[in-house]
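Hi support team,

I'm filing this because I wasn't sure whether my run with zinc ion finished correctly. The job status page said complete, but I'd like someone to confirm that the output block is well-formed before I use it downstream. Pasting the exact inputs I used:
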Amino acid sequence: VLATWATGTRGESGNWKGWDFLEKLGATRIGELANEVDARHLVLSGESPLSHSHVAGERLWMAKTSEPLLRLKGANNAGRFMNWARIADSERSEEGAVIYSETSDTSSRSAVFAFSESTWEARPFVTYLLIDDVLRWLTHEAVAVRAAWPNGRRAAQVIEMDTEDGFENAKHFAALMKENAQPATFYVLTSLAQNEKSVLTGLAQDFEIAYHGDVHDSFKGLAPNLQRQRLINMKSQLSRILPSATRITGFRAPTEGYDGATEIELHEAGFKHHAADPARSEGRLPVFAKIKEAEPENDLIVLPRTQRDDLNLSALNLDAQQTSQALIDDFNESTLTGALGWLSVHSQNFKPTGLLDQAFPSYLTHIRKSAKTVWFATAGQVSEWWRQRDRFKLESSFNGRRMDVNLTLKGSQKLDGPSIIIMLPKKGLIPIVQGTKVGTPVPEISAIDAFRAQLVFESLPPGNHSYQITFSAN
Ligand SMILES: [Zn+2]
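And here is everything the job wrote out:
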């Protein structure tokens, strides 16, 4: 059953029948969302059984109609109502907008949308992708998708410091990150960095260094030749005090201010990634800049900032404990949706014993508990993975019983850690994977949850690899 909005609450003659029908489908009604509540984006989970054609964290705008969005709760959900920044009120954190269930005695499947059909009339195409996925799941079709992250990790997290005013504070932040065995990336403002040789040399020993421009002015709207000159200045300022500066390939524009010309200049200058603003992509994953005529292996990778930064949080006037909680909430949220979590902090706000410094230790303690499921990485590692992952292609078909999966790895280099997620045709099944040729690399198989399993390859050599997958109850 696919039910939208208040299905079954009224009889044929319009008489009120209550919410029992939706309850039978696994959805409990909590209430309604008033039209004025700032939560009209349906934010979808990546790699979920019902929304895998959408990118993790993609937002679908729900038009205002006479049928209010419903507040529903269910055991499994593939999407939630949030504001544009993907923040939901904490009182709604358990609620879902796309709820699914499979009752084990009959194996019958149901999906409940907490919104009416009229919400997507203005932009039907994006919702049709969701509906296609939902229908495939309801009809017990097994589906294979390329995992966003390597080695069976469900999400990725980057923590970076825009290292500018208060440059010295970076030392303190670095010590804290090192103590907690966390990687970090420091985007340094080179006009200040050039006078901080000892701090910078210390940072470079343990952490990734990248560029945050020459001076703290936006690049947006500047003539391309001026932008080019600023990149040249920036590189020469840093190379005077840091010999390894010539190998730095990451950039984050001051004030997140850039335009198309900035990315073209970055690409021409050999940069590999651009850490951009939250509005840059509709989803919460890296994207290719698609610089004209650049092949994916040479293209610039854009890493959108996907979480609230310290400036967003300080505008909320939180105390240290509330700041920790907000950081933890944002981490949990992006992890749950399979996203690239991107936390940006500013050196000037990381004074020893300052608010952010007080808030950080319990946040770091919390995130470390997820080390088995979340990939903690530098910006450069994420961008390189994203580029390499593009060489990995997957095709699959399902005949009702057996699934054929063809993997292709382009290029001449092996790829470490590629993973595949299988949406199971029935709850709790385990895939049995057989290579069609002797010597085909064998993946490690494990359950993610009742509805999904993953196949993780330690390493895949270039070429084609074919598999047949059947499903077993134990
Ligand atoms: Zn800055």
